[in-house]
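I am writing to request your help with a piece of structural work I have in hand. A protein sequence and the structure tokens that stand for its backbone fold form the material at issue. Please examine both parts with care and let me know of anything in them that strikes you as inconsistent. The record follows directly beneath this note.
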Amino acid sequence: MASIERRITHATSGGATPATDATEPAPRTTSVEASHSTAGQDESMASKLADLRKRMDEERAYINTMEEALELFRRTHGDDYNAYPEAVRDFAKKQARIQEENHRKRRHQDIEDEWEGPQQEEEAKTASTVSMEVTPAQRPIGRVKEPKVYKGESIRELNEFMASIRAIFRYQPRVFPTEQSKVAFAAQYLEGHPMKEWDNRCATQGDGYIDPLDIAGFEEFLRDLHVDPANRQRIAALKYNVALQRKGQSIRKFVAYLEDLKREMEPYTESQKTVHLLTKIHPEMRQRLLEGGNDKPVGNRENSYR
């Protein structure tokens, strides 16, 4: 019995190794430490918001300053960006690109809105008569794929642009049932010089002086922009020689049309310009000018006869 007690005493003495080590509990986060952490996060967020507001104020001030400068230099130098300071020139070009892109998107959306209704009605009629076992290639066609913009840099670029446009017309013919809708769709992808020239033509067309183009005429118009200067002068001269003021067209608009043609031609003297204008304007307008009896140039009298 005594030996058993000695063995028990020895097993529970300092020489024995316990089965598991006791672990200390993790220190608890006090309410003071938690409040300090939350306060630190709040200060960090407030600092970020303050930096953001400062950045916004700086950007807003920059844009306002650039817009004022752009307006000032535009009044003085027009669209001659070379006369602008570099920073203002870069800002002007960036704004022009943004406006062109927004304009293109709006025109594209207008076309989609215009044809989406009829297309959906047609597809609904088609779906009601077509079997459910139609193959994927025969199912109604989806959204139109957008072509790349055309900048007028080369004939090759024009060929590729028109090829992609024609592919779209073949791919979804119901969306473009008329020549006018085809031209309107293609024109929204013009950029730079071609876009400017097309806008000028549309303005002249809006005056009723020239007729709308079909898609073939639209392509021919773009190709004419690549004609060498000598040939362009001859083409402009031919158009100038047959130009006549239409009934109801204001002399101001007609003069603007002639000025566009003359920019492509050899310069005329003021006397030649006056004689040419008198021979081209409507007979009633010419008679009124001649009966005026004053010796002012025609250009100074046009406001009286609009």
User: Anything to note?
Assistant: The radius of gyration is 38 Å. The longest helix spans residues 31-77. Confidence is low (pLDDT under 50) at residues 127-141, 294-299, 301-306. Residues 245 and 283 are 9 Å apart (CA to CA).
